[in-house]
Design goal:
The complex is a heterodimer of chains A (152) and B (673). With 152 residues, chain A is an alpha/beta fold. Chain A has six helices and four strands, in the order E-H-E-H-E-H-E-H-H-H. Chain A has a four-stranded parallel beta sheet, sandwiched between helices. In chain A, helix 1 crosses helix 4. Chain B is an alpha/beta fold. In chain B, the strands form twelve sheets. In chain B, strands 10-7-6-18-29 form a five-stranded parallel beta sheet. A five-stranded parallel beta sheet of chain B has the order 20-27-21-22-23. A four-stranded parallel beta sheet of chain B has the order 2-1-3-4, with helices on both faces. In chain B, helix 3 links the parallel strand 3 and strand 4 (92-96). The longest helix of chain B has 19 residues, at 109-127. The two termini of chain B are 31 Å apart. Classes of the chains: A alpha/beta (152), B alpha/beta (673). At the A-B interface, helix 1, strand 2, helix 2, helix 3 and helix 5 of A face helix 3, helix 4, helix 5, helix 17 and helix 18 of B.
Chain lengths: 152, 673
């Protein structure tokens, strides 16, 4: 049987974590190629429906990462994201998503090594959790993820 | 159907060594909507860019994806190439194959697979890209300088000398700020007034500078290039156009026992006063709080003696409105006073003074005419103790930071004392000596070695009075932490530099950031040290954090350049990556329901209200309007909008969704279940 390779979606902000991931590159720090980065201007921009959409696309895990508290390029976007995450987490648990599949982190533009470490950790954690079957389970039960109505 | 071009760069070996670029280009060619796909060794090189431009024209491409390095590196390069080839530059996207793929992964099939997927994501995104045009905003070529200390003066003169109008607002009756109070300046010991007053006069006489003293900034609205500022001009009760500055009124004023702010409370002034003889403007104001006439309704002595009939008791406070393009904030600092220190007697003892009071004692224009006399009995103190770090770097006092200037001015004070009282003893209690700066350490060494100032490393725990002496109890941590007791005649506390009392409300009216200590925050600690997060507002001097005169002046010139650079063009060009409220569906209406949740989330106050009316002018509804001049494009409002009526140019719902859903494609798999 083929080894399970987790599919990780990373939603990062342009100013801190995207630049941090760039730094990991310029520092040639190796990490597994399981992650796909989507660039946002700020974590405050991340509509959490996109988290569900990531699972719908087939992600086994999602990383959300932006600037450290008080370092936000736009002053407060990361705080909005954090608050949204606190609310979203309960909702996700309520509908039956395993919130261990979502990792929330802060990685600054200077933390290339931290970014690589984060990806390593998440890939290992998700590898242990196994493929994301919850979403399929939910679909089976007839739970509609309402994103389609809004975006497509 | 889109006609997207994909350009895969090898970046020499950087990408090519780990990613099979030819294969990526080959696979990309089969993506729906991709009309042209090619790989090349160096896309950013001249032939590479020409290749892109030619392909755009030849294949009539309506969007390109350059799969190369980080967009933070070369996005401007390829957007420029797209523009030159005749398509909108915002139809160009970059897939980050180098920093996010080839440099961090090994040479394996999975790496090439990832590279292909990254290209696919961006191909899907670019299909949804819309042409955008840069935003142009007109610029009012007038700068506002808040604060008339050395920082404000430097910034105002620099901007005015570049030919632009400057409005300076100072809350005191005279400009000059703290520097005017200083006796001599480190590390050269040149007279502060001698170098400052000519610059003050220059400000007053400059044809491009309009000076409002005894005035405060009431409110700031608008945005970069287009601020509207309201200035509250307090009533001076003196008609400046008539006043000759003869000073008769001050001689006759009967309220003579008001603590003199300029002399840091060491002397008294009258109710009608000029803060100091070299004041600019050198015309008095009436301090209505202390004036006998305003308190009791009787007196008017000044009016009787004034030969120019300049006294006007009926003058009213006025609000002046000005249109401003850029703002330089130079509001300076304050110091903690001696009453902040219980261990040093809550400021009750007259001979325990702060640094500014010592400056006035040492100043030739001060209350003692430069003779060091202690405030209690006017005797020359034989033994003076200087305590550095009074409050600074002290968590227990709530001031964790270093006040930066104290080490240097304490050394200066001790030196000035020794130069004036040759037989006297000077002691300095210190934690560390932080004398980083040109000729600074040499200056401190001079105090220790040439002027015999006794430096004791340790803190002072208590000061109390015994037999007319101030007993300073401290510890010498360099001598086995032995207790030290000095019988002093006077103690000078180098108290912590703190933000101005009104710093917080001023920051709030300007919407600039400030830290826990109310010092204003710069946009970036390294690379944008003079800008604030609000475009068009710059910082100069100690309002941003404690700093000395040369640093303040340098920063003020930096802030001035930022303002002048803004004024260099008639219009301001900004990236159009801003949020927009959907106004297209249904026609004329907006899907916005007017909840204004977005308004509460916007850190830039860019969101206002817009009324939608029918053809008869009746209001249909009020919807959100995002000012493109103010919006910085963070997108927080977009994610918050409940009716999905706001979208962010460059990062629209559709763009991001297409990017996300292009991956892995397990939707069918799920649908089957």
């Amino acid at each position: 049987m083929q080894k399970f390779e987790p599919k990780i979606m990373a939603y990062v902000c342009n100013w801190c974590t995207y630049a941090g991931a760039d730094l990991a590159g310029t520092s040639r720090i190796k990490y597994p190629p399981n992650v796909r980065i989507v660039r946002y201007p700020c974590t405050g921009r991340i509509d959490f429906m996109f988290l569900l959409k990531a699972f719908e696309a087939g992600a086994d895990g999602v990383i959300v990462s932006g600037c450290h508290p008080n370092d936000c390029h736009y002053t407060s976007g990361n705080f909005h994201a954090r608050r949204r995450w606190m609310v979203f987490k309960e909702l996700a648990e309520f509908v039956g998503l395993d919130t261990r599949r979502i990792t929330f982190s802060w990685v600054s533009a200077a933390e290339g090594a931290k970014w690589a470490e984060l990806v390593n950790e998440v890939v290992e954690d998700i590898r242990e959790l196994g493929p994301n079957t919850e979403y399929q389970e939910l679909a089976k039960k007839g739970v509609n993820m309402p994103g389609d109505l809004l975006y497509v | 159907m889109s006609r997207i071009g994909v350009f895969v760069c090898h970046c020499g070996e950087n990408i090519g060594a780990t990613v099979d670029c030819a294969k990526v280009a080959e696979t990309a060619a089969k993506f729906p909507g991709v009309a042209y796909s090619i790989d090349y060794k160096y896309m950013c090189s001249d032939p590479g860019q020409t290749m892109i431009k030619d392909a755009i024209k030849e294949h009539k491409l309506d969007g390109i994806v350059v799969a190369a390095c980080s967009p933070r590196m070369h996005e401007p390069t390829f957007r420029k190439a797209a523009r030159e080839a005749g398509i909108n530059e915002f139809l160009c996207e970059m897939a980050n194959l180098r920093e996010h793929c080839s440099w961090v992964h090994a040479k394996e099939d999975s790496t090439t697979e990832k590279a292909t997927e990254l290209v696919k994501m961006l191909v899907e995104k670019v299909k949804k890209n819309k042409p955008l045009t840069h935003i142009k905003v007109p610029v009012t070529k007038t700068a506002l300088v808040i604060g008339g200390g050395i920082g404000g003066i430097q910034a105002a003169l620099d901007i005015a000398n570049c030919g632009h109008q400057v409005i300076m607002v100072e809350k005191e009756p005279s400009i000059g700020g703290h520097m005017a109070q200083l006796s001599e300046t480190f590390p050269t010991l040149d007279c502060s007034q001698c170098i400052l007053t000519p610059r003050m006069v220059e400000v007053a006489q400059h044809p491009n500078i309009k000076l409002y003293t005894y005035a405060e900034v009431e409110s700031v609205s608008g945005f970069i290039g287009n601020f509207e500022v309201k200035i509250r001009q307090k009533a001076k009760s003196v008609d400046e156009s008539l006043c000759t500055g003869c000073g008769l009124c001050m001689q006759k004023c009967p309220s003579k026992r008001i603590p003199d702010e300029f002399n840091a409370g060491l002397s008294n002034r009258t109710a009608i006063y000029v803060p100091f003889p070299q004041a600019v403007p050198n015309k008095p104001v009436i301090d209505r709080e202390h004036c006998t006439y305003f308190k009791t309704g009787k007196c008017k002595l000044c009016e009787k003696v004034c030969p120019a009939n300049a006294i006007d008791f009926n003058q009213k406070e006025t609000i002046i409105e000005e249109k401003i393009g850029a703002i330089v904030v130079a509001t300076g600092f304050d110091i903690k006073h001696t009453d902040f220190f219980p261990e040093y007697g809550y400021g009750q003892h007259p001979d325990i003074i702060d640094g500014l009071q010592f400056e006035r004692l040492a100043s030739a224009s001060g209350p003692t005419l430069g003779v060091i006399k202690r405030p209690s009995d006017g005797k020359v103190p034989e033994k003076v103790v200087f305590i550095a770090c009074s409050g600074s770097r002290d968590h227990a006092k709530g001031i964790e930071y270093c006040s930066k200037i104290c080490c240097m001015y304490t050394a200066k004070h001790a030196m000035l004392y020794k130069h004036k009282v040759h037989h006297g003893d000077a002691y300095v209690f210190y934690m560390d000596i932080r004398a980083a700066g040109k000729n600074y350490d040499e200056f401190v060494r001079r105090a220790i070695e040439e002027d015999d100032v006794n430096y004791i490393r340790g803190r002072v725990s208590k000061i109390y009075e015994r037999d007319g002496k101030l007993i300073v109890r401290g510890v010498d941590t360099l001598l086995n932490s032995e207790p030290v007791e000095v019988e002093a005649d006077m103690v000078v506390l180098a108290t912590a530099a703190v933000a101005q009392q009104k710093a917080e409300p001023l920051a709030q009216t300007m919407h600039i950031g400030y830290d826990a200590h109310h010092f204003y925050s710069e946009a970036h600690p390294k690379l944008k040290p003079v800008e604030t997060n609000t475009a068009g507002i710059m910082l100069a001097g100690a309002c941003q954090g404690p700093r000395d005169i040369p640093e303040t002046v340098a920063q003020a010139s930096g802030a001035a350049v930022k303002a002048v650079a803004l004024f260099a063009n008639d219009e301001l060009t900004r990236e159009p990556l801003v949020a927009v409220v959907n106004r297209t569906t249904p026609p004329m209406f907006s899907t916005c329901v007017g909840c204004f949740l977005c308004e509460s989330a916007c850190p830039y106050l860019a969101i206002g209200k817009e009324e939608i009316k029918d053809r008869n002018g009746n209001l249909i509804k009020t919807v959100a309007y995002i000012n493109p001049g103010l919006c910085q494009g963070c997108g927080t409002c977009v994610a918050l909008c409940r009716s999905k009526s706001i979208d962010l140019n460059g990062f629209t719902h559709q763009q991001i969704l297409s990017e996300v859903m292009s991956l892995w494609n397990r939707r069918e798999e799920y649908a089957e279940v």
